[in-house]
């Protein structure tokens, strides 16, 4: 029995060493999807005011055209969103030091955030850490660090696959493909939007999985209220906007208690959740990801909503030409195809 226990300890120790080596010694994938966060932070750090900062999960990364917002509203725009699995606690905490007085922060979170702790997922957080050279790890809370540790075997396996493929691909980086969509850093434009999927046809999915609807997580809600207060104390205007979502996905994930909870903490949605849905035919590859026509539609809706609650610069870079024509056309399209 003692010999078996010793062998077990040796095996476990070896596994830990191998996992740590694969995570820390293999060069990071410079074209990984999550590595796009490095570019987003660089833009946020240097972007002049007036500014609109978009925060949320992949619904924001895939669902908005920041250049449309910039041209129509006369503001510089940065899309900071990437993946809901990162967790809103990390995203908002990391962006807070960059907030300046006068910033407009548009916060669009997937509905599942309200039923969880907001501390991210083990499948995503360690990949983010590797892609960003362990940015912000020292400031993580205990739950976030535990999720990073839990996910390290998956991260190690991902690096192992990259090593195995190297003799055939001659690179450790994700390779973009001209014939089909690939999740990659190179798919983002300079504003931070995932734009490569704009030219791709729908992938044939609407809902990835129904949301495990639970009571609203009160700890997350209390944290959200405090974090928004910190943004406002830094001088920002924070606008809560429902996520962009195909209709079937919306029905599978949204419950009215979400809007009620936001109302209760004094930060209600700027518009009804139903108004940010699009027809299922505009879904891209499932969940909250939408195709180019939906991107234009939801962007023009945001262009319409923001000035109604927050003053915009006098110079709007052709707002009347772009907004009136594009918004009017796509609203008709939406009503016809809903």
Compile the SSE list and pairings.
Elements: H1 2-25, H2 36-46, E1 51-56, H3 58-63, H4 66-73, E2 76-79, H5 88-95, E3 104-108, H6 125-131, H7 142-169, H8 218-233, E4 237-240, E5 245-246, H9 247-253, H10 257-264, E6 277-278, H11 292-309, H12 319-337
Parallel strand pairs: 1-2, 1-3, 3-4, 5-6
Helix pairs in contact: 1-7, 4-11, 4-12, 6-7, 11-12
**Succession of helices and strands:** HHEHHEHEHHHEEHHEHH
State the strand order across the main sheet. 2-1-3-4
* Main sheet overview: 4 strands, parallel
Helix content: 40-55%
- Tally the beta strands: 6
What does this protein look like?
The chain has 12 helices and 6 strands. The radius of gyration is 21 Å and the shape is globular. The chain has a 4-stranded parallel sheet with strand order 2-1-3-4, with helices on both faces. It has a two-stranded parallel ribbon with strand order 5-6. With 338 residues, the chain is α/β, with parallel strands linked by helices. It starts with a helix and ends with a helix. Helix 1 (2-25) crosses helix 7 (142-169), helix 4 (66-73) runs parallel beside helix 11 (292-309) and helix 6 (125-131) crosses helix 7 (142-169). It has helices spanning 2-25, 36-46, 58-63, 66-73, 88-95, 125-131, 142-169, 218-233, 247-253, 257-264, 292-309, 319-337; strands at 51-56, 76-79, 104-108, 237-240, 245-246, 277-278.
